[in-house]
Amino acid sequence: MRYDSLQRLNAARRKRLPVVLLTDFRGEEHLFLEGDPVEPPFAALVEGAFRSGRSMTFARAGASGFLNVYLPAPRIAVIGAVHISQYLTPMARLAGFDVRIIDPRTGFATRDRFPDVRVSTDWPVDAFVADPLDRYTALVALTHDPKIDDFALAEALRTGCFYIGALGSRKTHAARIGRLAAGGFGVDALSIIHAPIGLDIGASTPAEISVAILGEVIKALRTS
Protein backbone atom coordinates (compact mmCIF):
# COMPACT_ATOMS: atom_id res chain seq x y z
CA MET A 1 0.00 0.00 0.00
CA ARG A 2 1.30 3.44 -0.89
CA TYR A 3 2.11 5.79 1.98
CA ASP A 4 -0.48 8.38 0.90
CA SER A 5 -3.16 5.67 0.71
CA LEU A 6 -2.21 4.47 4.19
CA GLN A 7 -2.47 8.01 5.55
CA ARG A 8 -5.94 8.49 4.04
CA LEU A 9 -7.05 5.07 5.25
CA ASN A 10 -5.93 5.74 8.82
CA ALA A 11 -7.59 9.15 8.82
CA ALA A 12 -10.85 7.61 7.62
CA ARG A 13 -10.71 4.85 10.23
CA ARG A 14 -10.20 7.38 13.02
CA LYS A 15 -13.37 9.12 11.83
CA ARG A 16 -15.22 5.77 11.50
CA LEU A 17 -15.70 6.22 7.76
CA PRO A 18 -15.98 3.15 5.48
CA VAL A 19 -13.27 2.80 2.85
CA VAL A 20 -12.66 0.60 -0.20
CA LEU A 21 -9.11 0.26 -1.52
CA LEU A 22 -8.94 -0.93 -5.13
CA THR A 23 -5.57 -2.30 -6.19
CA ASP A 24 -5.07 -3.73 -9.64
CA PHE A 25 -2.31 -6.15 -10.57
CA ARG A 26 -0.44 -3.35 -12.35
CA GLY A 27 0.14 -1.74 -8.97
CA GLU A 28 -2.32 1.14 -9.30
CA GLU A 29 -4.31 2.06 -6.18
CA HIS A 30 -7.59 3.89 -5.80
CA LEU A 31 -9.07 4.64 -2.38
CA PHE A 32 -12.78 5.47 -2.10
CA LEU A 33 -14.78 6.75 0.83
CA GLU A 34 -18.43 5.74 0.79
CA GLY A 35 -20.26 8.30 -1.37
CA ASP A 36 -17.21 9.27 -3.44
CA PRO A 37 -17.80 9.39 -7.21
CA VAL A 38 -16.43 6.26 -8.92
CA GLU A 39 -15.81 6.18 -12.64
CA PRO A 40 -16.98 3.25 -14.78
CA PRO A 41 -16.29 0.37 -15.02
CA PHE A 42 -15.73 0.12 -11.27
CA ALA A 43 -18.74 2.03 -9.90
CA ALA A 44 -20.99 -1.00 -9.41
CA LEU A 45 -18.07 -3.06 -8.11
CA VAL A 46 -17.14 -0.53 -5.41
CA GLU A 47 -20.79 0.06 -4.49
CA GLY A 48 -21.29 -3.69 -4.07
CA ALA A 49 -18.19 -3.95 -1.90
CA PHE A 50 -19.51 -1.25 0.45
CA ARG A 51 -22.88 -2.99 0.59
CA SER A 52 -21.50 -6.48 1.31
CA GLY A 53 -18.57 -5.42 3.48
CA ARG A 54 -16.50 -8.23 1.97
CA SER A 55 -13.09 -7.94 0.38
CA MET A 56 -12.72 -9.73 -2.95
CA THR A 57 -10.75 -10.19 -6.13
CA PHE A 58 -12.08 -8.71 -9.35
CA ALA A 59 -11.58 -9.02 -13.11
CA ARG A 60 -13.43 -6.45 -15.16
CA ALA A 61 -12.93 -4.37 -18.31
CA GLY A 62 -9.40 -5.56 -18.89
CA ALA A 63 -8.32 -4.93 -15.29
CA SER A 64 -7.97 -7.34 -12.38
CA GLY A 65 -6.89 -7.09 -8.79
CA PHE A 66 -8.20 -6.80 -5.24
CA LEU A 67 -10.87 -4.83 -3.45
CA ASN A 68 -10.14 -4.43 0.26
CA VAL A 69 -13.06 -3.19 2.35
CA TYR A 70 -12.48 -1.42 5.65
CA LEU A 71 -15.67 -0.87 7.63
CA PRO A 72 -15.88 0.70 11.10
CA ALA A 73 -16.17 -1.86 13.89
CA PRO A 74 -19.81 -2.27 15.00
CA ARG A 75 -20.67 -0.84 18.38
CA ILE A 76 -23.60 -0.42 20.73
CA ALA A 77 -24.59 2.73 22.60
CA VAL A 78 -26.72 1.70 25.58
CA ILE A 79 -28.86 4.48 27.01
CA GLY A 80 -29.48 3.60 30.62
CA ALA A 81 -27.27 2.03 33.28
CA VAL A 82 -30.06 -0.35 34.29
CA HIS A 83 -30.14 -3.98 35.38
CA ILE A 84 -30.58 -5.26 31.81
CA SER A 85 -27.51 -3.29 30.77
CA GLN A 86 -25.39 -5.19 33.30
CA TYR A 87 -26.15 -8.43 31.43
CA LEU A 88 -26.22 -6.99 27.92
CA THR A 89 -22.82 -5.31 28.15
CA PRO A 90 -20.62 -8.39 28.74
CA MET A 91 -22.66 -10.45 26.26
CA ALA A 92 -22.25 -7.82 23.56
CA ARG A 93 -18.53 -7.50 24.21
CA LEU A 94 -18.11 -11.27 23.88
CA ALA A 95 -19.91 -11.01 20.52
CA GLY A 96 -17.35 -8.47 19.34
CA PHE A 97 -19.15 -5.16 19.90
CA ASP A 98 -17.60 -2.08 21.43
CA VAL A 99 -20.10 -0.98 24.08
CA ARG A 100 -20.62 2.25 25.96
CA ILE A 101 -23.16 3.17 28.63
CA ILE A 102 -24.74 6.64 28.70
CA ASP A 103 -26.82 7.70 31.70
CA PRO A 104 -26.80 11.05 33.49
CA ARG A 105 -28.11 9.38 36.65
CA THR A 106 -24.86 9.07 38.55
CA GLY A 107 -26.33 6.70 41.10
CA PHE A 108 -26.74 4.09 38.34
CA ALA A 109 -23.82 4.82 36.00
CA THR A 110 -20.95 3.77 38.24
CA ARG A 111 -17.72 1.89 37.69
CA ASP A 112 -18.72 -0.60 40.37
CA ARG A 113 -21.79 -1.62 38.38
CA PHE A 114 -20.04 -1.47 34.98
CA PRO A 115 -16.36 -2.39 35.38
CA ASP A 116 -14.18 -2.21 32.26
CA VAL A 117 -16.91 -0.47 30.24
CA ARG A 118 -16.95 3.09 28.96
CA VAL A 119 -19.51 4.89 31.08
CA SER A 120 -20.67 8.45 30.43
CA THR A 121 -22.73 10.40 32.95
CA ASP A 122 -23.41 13.12 30.38
CA TRP A 123 -26.86 13.62 28.94
CA PRO A 124 -27.09 12.05 25.47
CA VAL A 125 -27.14 15.49 23.81
CA ASP A 126 -23.65 16.11 25.25
CA ALA A 127 -22.35 12.54 24.99
CA PHE A 128 -23.08 12.48 21.25
CA VAL A 129 -21.14 15.69 20.69
CA ALA A 130 -18.04 14.07 22.18
CA ASP A 131 -18.61 10.72 20.45
CA PRO A 132 -21.24 10.92 17.68
CA LEU A 133 -23.49 8.09 16.58
CA ASP A 134 -23.03 6.67 13.08
CA ARG A 135 -24.44 4.06 10.73
CA TYR A 136 -22.29 1.36 12.33
CA THR A 137 -23.72 1.96 15.80
CA ALA A 138 -26.73 0.29 17.40
CA LEU A 139 -28.77 2.46 19.78
CA VAL A 140 -30.43 0.63 22.67
CA ALA A 141 -32.64 2.84 24.86
CA LEU A 142 -33.50 1.32 28.23
CA THR A 143 -34.27 4.06 30.75
CA HIS A 144 -38.06 4.44 30.30
CA ASP A 145 -37.41 8.15 30.90
CA PRO A 146 -38.42 10.36 27.94
CA LYS A 147 -36.04 13.08 29.10
CA ILE A 148 -33.15 10.69 28.48
CA ASP A 149 -34.36 8.26 25.82
CA ASP A 150 -36.21 10.56 23.42
CA PHE A 151 -33.26 12.68 22.33
CA ALA A 152 -31.11 9.56 21.91
CA LEU A 153 -33.75 7.89 19.73
CA ALA A 154 -34.22 11.03 17.65
CA GLU A 155 -30.48 11.38 17.09
CA ALA A 156 -30.23 7.70 16.12
CA LEU A 157 -32.99 8.22 13.54
CA ARG A 158 -31.26 11.31 12.14
CA THR A 159 -27.91 9.52 11.99
CA GLY A 160 -29.19 6.28 10.46
CA CYS A 161 -27.97 3.85 13.13
CA PHE A 162 -28.16 0.29 11.81
CA TYR A 163 -30.35 -0.70 14.77
CA ILE A 164 -32.60 1.35 17.03
CA GLY A 165 -34.49 -0.30 19.88
CA ALA A 166 -36.37 0.95 22.91
CA LEU A 167 -37.59 -0.80 26.04
CA GLY A 168 -41.23 -0.44 27.01
CA SER A 169 -44.73 -1.76 26.54
CA ARG A 170 -46.79 -1.09 23.41
CA LYS A 171 -48.65 1.61 25.33
CA THR A 172 -45.37 3.23 26.37
CA HIS A 173 -44.08 3.04 22.82
CA ALA A 174 -47.27 4.56 21.38
CA ALA A 175 -46.75 7.59 23.62
CA ARG A 176 -43.09 7.70 22.59
CA ILE A 177 -44.03 7.61 18.91
CA GLY A 178 -46.43 10.49 19.48
CA ARG A 179 -43.69 12.62 21.00
CA LEU A 180 -41.19 11.83 18.23
CA ALA A 181 -43.83 12.48 15.57
CA ALA A 182 -44.48 15.87 17.13
CA GLY A 183 -40.76 16.47 16.74
CA GLY A 184 -41.02 16.05 12.97
CA PHE A 185 -40.41 12.36 12.31
CA GLY A 186 -42.67 10.61 9.81
CA VAL A 187 -44.32 7.21 9.99
CA ASP A 188 -41.68 5.47 7.87
CA ALA A 189 -38.81 6.75 10.01
CA LEU A 190 -40.53 5.83 13.27
CA SER A 191 -41.33 2.32 12.04
CA ILE A 192 -37.59 1.57 12.17
CA ILE A 193 -37.60 1.59 15.97
CA HIS A 194 -37.76 -1.92 17.43
CA ALA A 195 -40.30 -1.83 20.25
CA PRO A 196 -40.96 -3.84 22.27
CA ILE A 197 -37.23 -4.34 22.06
CA GLY A 198 -35.61 -7.70 21.32
CA LEU A 199 -36.48 -10.87 19.46
CA ASP A 200 -39.78 -12.41 20.45
CA ILE A 201 -38.44 -15.41 22.40
CA GLY A 202 -40.64 -15.06 25.46
CA ALA A 203 -37.85 -13.45 27.48
CA SER A 204 -38.80 -12.43 31.01
CA THR A 205 -35.66 -12.03 33.13
CA PRO A 206 -33.04 -9.29 32.60
CA ALA A 207 -30.57 -11.87 31.30
CA GLU A 208 -33.10 -13.33 28.85
CA ILE A 209 -34.12 -9.87 27.67
CA SER A 210 -30.46 -9.10 27.07
CA VAL A 211 -30.13 -12.22 24.90
CA ALA A 212 -33.20 -11.14 22.93
CA ILE A 213 -31.83 -7.63 22.42
CA LEU A 214 -28.39 -8.81 21.36
CA GLY A 215 -29.91 -11.32 18.97
CA GLU A 216 -31.98 -8.60 17.33
CA VAL A 217 -28.95 -6.31 17.06
CA ILE A 218 -26.89 -9.05 15.39
CA LYS A 219 -29.75 -9.85 13.03
CA ALA A 220 -29.95 -6.21 11.97
CA LEU A 221 -26.18 -6.02 11.47
CA ARG A 222 -25.90 -9.18 9.40
CA THR A 223 -29.09 -9.03 7.33
CA SER A 224 -29.67 -5.33 6.66
UniProtKB/TrEMBL annotation:
<feature type="domain" description="XdhC Rossmann">
    <location>
        <begin position="77"/>
        <end position="217"/>
    </location>
</feature>
<dbReference type="InterPro" id="IPR027051">
    <property type="entry name" value="XdhC_Rossmann_dom"/>
</dbReference>
<dbReference type="InterPro" id="IPR052698">
    <property type="entry name" value="MoCofactor_Util/Proc"/>
</dbReference>
<protein>
    <submittedName>
        <fullName>XdhC/CoxF family protein</fullName>
    </submittedName>
</protein>
<dbReference type="Pfam" id="PF13478">
    <property type="entry name" value="XdhC_C"/>
</dbReference>
